[in-house]
Amino acid sequence: MEAADLKILLVDDDTFMLKLLTKMLVNHGFKSIEACDNGPDALKKIDHPQTRPDLILLDLNMPDMDGIEFVRYLVERRYQGSLVLVSGEDERMLKTAEKLVHAHQITMLGYLHKPVSPDKLVNLIKKWVPSEGNQQVSSVAKKNYDAAALKSAISNRELVNYYQPKVAVKTGAVTGAETLVRWQHPTDGLVFPDQFIKTAEQEGLINDLTSLVLSQALAQARVWYESGYVLRVAINVSMDNLASLNFQDLVVNLAIENGLSPQNIVLEVTESQLMSADARVPLEILTRLRLKRFHLSIDDFGTGHSSMAQLRDIPFDELKIDQGFVHRAWADETLRAIYDASLSMAKQLGMEVVAEGVADEKDWFFLQQTGCDYAQGNFVSKPLLADDFVSWMHAWGDRVRQGKLLSDSA
Length: 410
Ligand code: C2E
Ligand code: CA
Ligand code: CA
What we know:
It is a single chain. It is built from 16 helices and 15 strands. The strands form 2 sheets. An 8-stranded mixed beta barrel has the order 6-7-9-10-11-12-13-14, surrounded by 4 helices. It has helices at residues 15-27, 39-47, 67-76, 91-103, 118-126, 134-141, 147-155, 197-202, 206-226, 245-257, 271-275, 280-291, 308-313, 333-348, 361-370, 386-401, and strands at 7-11, 32-36, 55-59, 82-87, 107-113, 159-168, 174-185, 189-191, 232-236, 265-270, 295-301, 318-321, 352-355, 374-375, 384-385. The chain starts with 6 loop residues before the first strand and ends in a 9-residue tail after the last helix. The protein is 43% helix and 20% strand. The protein has 2 domains: 3-138, Response regulator (Rossmann fold, 3-Layer(aba) Sandwich), CATH 3.40.50.2300; 147-401, Alpha-Beta Barrel (TIM Barrel), CATH 3.20.20.450. It is of the alpha/beta class. Bound molecules: ligand C2E and calcium ion (2 copies). Ligand C2E binds at residues 164, 180-181, 192-194, 197, 210, 213, 236, 238, 299-300, 323, 356-359, 377-378, 383.
């Protein structure tokens, strides 16, 4: 592809800035430039194959959806293009943001200070290279499944639960598993949740989806229990599930039906969803479930904006530090600072802490040194089919007994 054919998307709430950047780019021969003055409009362009950009120039400070939140949505969409951050903030702020983007494994070409110098802009863009396998990945990842397809997938039970182990960092003991749904599509193969959960939420299918995932997960917990494995099984709950008391009844009834103790059932709710809209009803439902001794977990911690006071008011048992702040936290001051703050906040509030995205040995030993309670991530195990879980537990037990995973003090 010629550089001039590069599809560039500008996202900045300042329309003067948009005009200025467009002009600079046109002057340098770029032909395909789109501009959006807000995040949601830009996401629409990204979702559409015709307007999907190869490169995004993103302003960090925007009033509604800020740049960091925008990056989060790019991650959800498995955006394969590149990113340049643009901001009037000081160097330190830009560097911090750059590290966050790297942590999410998005290709970042660099950052630009406002006022933007045309030379710097062009030099950065010259660094753009097409990402490998770009076409293939994005055509699969971007496939949009409509409500009808998803509805029939739910009723035909094409949704399959995978289970990712959670283990105690000190002892290596397997304590539980998080249920992660996939769609075993008859022609497209295994489809990941980021390609259909949003549709399920938007199209009013999330209650059916969650109730299928939950009933499969609790039936599986019962099977493990009968084989002598008491595992705490977690499921992901969407905010829309918490809109009516039916959800509470569903959870309670399924627990009773399967003879499981509520303490061994964990409901994970993401921090950003909880802190958004009006969360009064959801909070009431969560609090009632907590009174019945179900475990509540706050997911993707660090990506929302909850304050200490808000956390204190909600009786969470567990806090999951988002993988963006766990992997490589040992190597990066900024990530480490967020990781440390989350850990100590949780401890002060008496919550157990799970680090997500533990991807290698260095991450694992970092958790040991810092006193994190539980680990989840590909270093321990990728998500597994239920049929593979018990044999994995044996293999992991062997790995732990070999002694290399536990520090001397443990
Ligand atoms: P999540 O709850 O934060 O789940 C963790 C995600 O990180 C999973 O992605 C998991 O496969 C991935 N992961 C685990 N270990 C590693 C690692 O070491 N490195 C990296 N890079 N990634 C790792 P998955 O399965 O694609 O799920 C994505 C999201 O979809 C979940 O994020 C969750 O928010 C949502 N989701 C999954 N199942 C359900 C469900 O049944 N209901 C709802 N409402 N949401 C679900
Ligand atoms: Ca989760
Ligand atoms: Ca998470």
